Amino acid sequence: MRFCACAALLIILSSCATSAPSPREFVSRNPRLANLQRAATLPWTDGGRCAVREASQPWPVLVEKCYRTLDPDRIEFHDTTGRCSVASADAAAVGLGFCVLAAPEIAVGAVIVLGGLVVAVAIQEALDAYELRHAYPEEAGTSRGAKVSSREAEAQRKPKPKPEPAGQDWQPPVPPVPVDRTGRASCEPVPVPHAGEDDPHNECADRFPPNRYPGMDVLVGGVRFDALQVGVRKLWEIKTHQFDTYNDYVRDREIEKEIKQLNKERKAAAACGYGFVIGVSTQAHKDALQREDRSLNIVVTGCKR
């Protein structure tokens, strides 16, 4: 009840506040982008997931929905304008900070973040995705306003391919490959649903690099990769075979098959300016691959099946 009272109070305060932007206010023709940029300056306990989910709402609504996911130990609020002093004593613990943060403009010194700030992962991913869409005009539609569906949405609408009994590294038919203006496969990373339903493999791909697009593979240069690492230009192929349990003959055939696949993926990654890393579960698997090709960048993940 106290939180609801604060929300009602905030609506009144916001409607009375001046709409003139201060020099520190985020200005953008895209309200969602402006909200993401504003949220990126704050410490969140949930990695920014709530802020991303509510970013299309007006900023006061985002604050109302996500205020409780702020890190209270790393943020201080100061009512420098006196506007929020009308908050009741019963709601002071929540009301003051809530009111200060959700104002159309934030006065200098009103919100202080303690310690170094690292942008929350979910917010950084959303900002990166926005930049990618606008780096490739064909993704956003023509300047005359024609609407073009995003590749992410199109990929997510496609039904997941049915798993084959051949194993976790069976590669289903690749969805239609996005192309650039020259007609070549695009180097823009395009998220697509994980291939198959091998949960241990997919969890390793999401957790270990870690994956910029959890729950998704990524198409780059017409080739499917298990993950694009957060914060760097590195594409990953994840192997979670129980390689140590295979007999010598099966091991040899498996390594032959993998070397062909990995060379194809490494070539596509390099052509688009990405690094390429292979994650394997055991040292024995890494040793077997490197006996065939010492130049491969292989990491032992320790992921279990």
TrEMBL record:
<feature type="compositionally biased region" description="Basic and acidic residues">
    <location>
        <begin position="149"/>
        <end position="163"/>
    </location>
</feature>
<feature type="region of interest" description="Disordered">
    <location>
        <begin position="140"/>
        <end position="208"/>
    </location>
</feature>
<dbReference type="InterPro" id="IPR046277">
    <property type="entry name" value="DUF6310"/>
</dbReference>
<protein>
    <recommendedName>
        <fullName>DUF6310 domain-containing protein</fullName>
    </recommendedName>
</protein>
<dbReference type="Pfam" id="PF19829">
    <property type="entry name" value="DUF6310"/>
</dbReference>
<feature type="domain" description="DUF6310">
    <location>
        <begin position="180"/>
        <end position="303"/>
    </location>
</feature>
<feature type="compositionally biased region" description="Basic and acidic residues">
    <location>
        <begin position="195"/>
        <end position="206"/>
    </location>
</feature>
<keyword id="KW-0732">Signal</keyword>
<feature type="signal peptide">
    <location>
        <begin position="1"/>
        <end position="19"/>
    </location>
</feature>
